[in-house]
Design goal:
- α2 links the parallel β2 and β3 (about 70).
- The chain is globular.
- Helix content is about 30%, strand content about 15%.
- It has a five-stranded mixed beta sheet.
- The chain starts with a strand and ends with a strand.
- It has about 180 residues and is α/β, with parallel strands linked by helices.
Length: about 180
Amino acid sequence: MEIFLIRHTTPAVDKGFIYGRTDVPLADSFDAEKELVRTKLPEHIDLVFSSPSSRCTLLAHQIKDSFESDEHLMELDFGLWEGKTWETIDRSESERWMEDFVNNCPPGGETLNEMNNRVMSFWEELMLRPCHRVVVITHGGVIRLLLAAVNASPLKSIFDINVNYGEVVSLNAAK
């Protein structure tokens, strides 16, 4: 199965704004970015999956008329930090999270392990689908988790994986 993982295009947010699950608008560069994404995809695509976030579904609509929205593809839930900035959240809480973001969670949010479990659940179900070319439009965190799994990298190293806005990552996955 050929899988194209696509990170949503550039959001219109200020630097340092925390928006894992928060629905945010896209930058004015959307049209140009979507065209660039489309040039990196094959003409025939069997299925398109998208995170329910509008920053993903807007791109999904441009790639295929019909797509499946899947909650498993949501970004990390930052809980009470959503909609705040890194400068305004409690420093001791953020330091505790950064010490072990794999097992610790933001207040009211989820751990990276919890996120990984739901993303891997999606991946396992995808591998059972009878298709050849699949597009998955999602978030940087989800793509990093999938690449870490494919490369057998530890979760604590996922932020070493760079995934730009609008980036298309192609994988060949054996069923």
